[in-house]
Amino acid sequence: MSNINGYINFVHHLAERLEFEIDLHVDCGCMEDPNDEAEKVPVELGIGNWRQAIGNLKTIAGFLEALASLEPSE
């Protein structure tokens, strides 16, 4: 998962496993990855910084993975 779309797909996959609704998408209001001019970063994730967007997605993914690993309480 070396690109932003890979992280977005991974977060969507985790959210689906947990039956969460999550809306992450790449839209036209975005910034360019400084390393790949074709790749875009959603403004709402990037907050003006491509690396921060990746960090935010990793945080969301980590949170969802932690939730997925919890045993359901009865």
Gist?
It contains 3 helices and 2 strands.
What is the element string, with H for helices and E for strands? HEEHH
Q: Would you tell me the overall average pLDDT?
A: 65
Please state the structural category: alpha+beta
> In total, how many domains does the architecture comprise?
1
Percentage of β-strand residues: 5-15%
Secondary structure tally: strands? 2
Major sheet characteristics: 2 strands, antiparallel
Number of continuous helical runs: 3
Low-confidence stretches: 26-31
Task: Describe this structure as you would to a colleague.
By secondary structure, the protein is an alpha+beta fold. The protein has one domain (4-61). 51% of the residues lie in helices and 15% in strands. It has 3 helices and 2 strands, in the order αββαα. It has helices spanning 4-17, 43-46, 50-69, and strands at residues 30-33, 36-42. A two-stranded antiparallel sheet has the order 1-2. A hairpin with a 2-residue loop joins strand 1 (30-33) and strand 2 (36-42). Helix 1 packs parallel to helix 3. The protein starts with a helix and ends in a 5-residue tail after the last helix. Residues 26-31 have low confidence and may be disordered.
